[in-house]
Structure formats: structure tokens, C-alpha cells
Please model this.
Amino acid sequence: MPNPPPKVVCVGIAVMDHVFSVAEMPSRPSKSFATGFAEVGGGPAANAAVTVARLGGRATLWARVGDDAVGRQIRDELAGHGVTVDRVRAIAGARSGLSAVLLDGAGERMIVNYADPDLDTDPSWLPLAELSDSGAVLADMRWPAAAAHVLAAARARGLPGVLDADRVPDGTDCSAFRVASHIVFSQPGLAQAAGDGDLEHGLRVMAAETGTWVAVTAGGEGVLWLEDHVLRHQPAYAVTPVDTLGAGDVFHGAFALALAEGREPGQACDFAAAAAAVKCGRHGTRAGYPTRVDVETLIGEAVS
Model:
């Protein structure tokens, strides 16, 4: 019998996004009129899990939601996309996370997120034994205690442990940086962590500080990473961006799955960059996240 596809455990946040389409971003406090509206699931780890499932991997999400109608909606939507949600815990008395998203005509977005401080932060209940049949772990920084806990367990088992390092509130525990095998920063996340907006210098600072493989996604500039102390660059695939919401999360999910499949980090960056480009070229919800055929087709067109 053929081997099952690799499993990726995604750890972090799951929310509902209220997405308002607008002609342009407001430049000052005012009343704006939306041209469209969608209510879709969001959150870095949750979006990455959907990406893994859409690309043909087995995706499991470890997360917390409130014991409310929104929490049930979050779980049901994820399950509908093929994500295993048995370990998405409903916290009694807490409210599920929500985001208000403005999406303009150029595909750029502005996000305001609410996370209930009463969501239990203790990760000790997470079933680390279930990593035994996993190919990789991905964690976001929206549940930092869990990120450090699970990435340390992944390292002990010799599994790739990818940290999605976006900007975090001041004072956040960043101990997960020391146990991840691969850290992929957003531009704001790298600038915050390294204290420097220069991408190459920031990568070198964080590589020296963490002792691990580091990369940064740079939107239309592609992705940069260090390989044997040499700066490498994967250009962005050429698409007309219409919706960048969740593109970074798609990159992280595709990158983790590629590592789980045994690809080298540079190859994984190429695969993930193509997946993110497909996402940017489409309007819509998670149903429009890339499939394996979508990604392979775009890569094939680029080299032909």
C-alpha cells in the first residue's frame, strides 16, 4: 500500500475574519462604505493548516477557541476543509477571536484583531505523543507558550519545526526562537526581532542569535534566506495581486509541508513562494487556496 501523505501539526490561533472590501484604505477617521463583505476563518496557524490540506497533506490544528457560537463556526469550517480539529479546545467562559479586515482594490489589507485574554495559555494539555507520526510542526507566535512547548518537542524528535515569526506585542515571550529548526519572518517581524529594517542584516543578526535557519518573506520581492552564511533569494512568482490576505500564512503552510516531504529549505521556499503567489492572484476565501496542481502549474509555466 502507498504511504499516507505527510502530516503537519499546526499550533496557534484560529479566528473568524470579517472582511470588508473597500475601494481604498481610509486615510483618516471617517465613515466608509464597503463594496463587499465576507465572513471567513483566519489566523496564521489555522490558515496554514488549510493550506496543508489543500496541497494534499494531512493537517491537524492544535488551538483554542471560546465555548461560543463563533468557536463552533471556526471548528466546523476548518473541518470542512479537511483539517483535523479534535485538538481545538473550547475554553469555558472565553470568547473566540475575531478580526476586522479592510481589503482595498489593490489587494492590500489592514487588520484589527481581538484575542480574548481569558483564553487559557497553558499548553501542557497538548498531546505531544501524537507527533510520533508527524512529518513537521508549524507554530505561530499568537500562542507563544504553545509554540515553545511544541517546537521543543519536535526538535527532540528530530522533526522540522517551523516558526511563523510575525510582529508580536512588546513583552511577548520569544523563547520559541531558540527551539525552532526553521524561522520564517515577516518583514515587520524581522525588523522587530532584529531591531533593524535591513533584510540581510536582520537575517544575519537573527541567525547569530538563534543558531538556526532563518528566512524572511518580502511580498513582491520574494523570499530571502541564509544558506551557509550566504544570502539566497527566491523571486516572487509573477501574478497580478488581487487579494493578499493570508498569503504569508499560505507560504508558511506550504513551506512546512515541503519540509515534511523531505525537500531542502531552498526547494521548500520555491514551492511555498508559488503557493503564496497563487493565493495573491485570487479573490475569495479559503476555498481559493492553492491545490498541488495549481502550484505545480505555476512553477512549470515560470520555467518553460
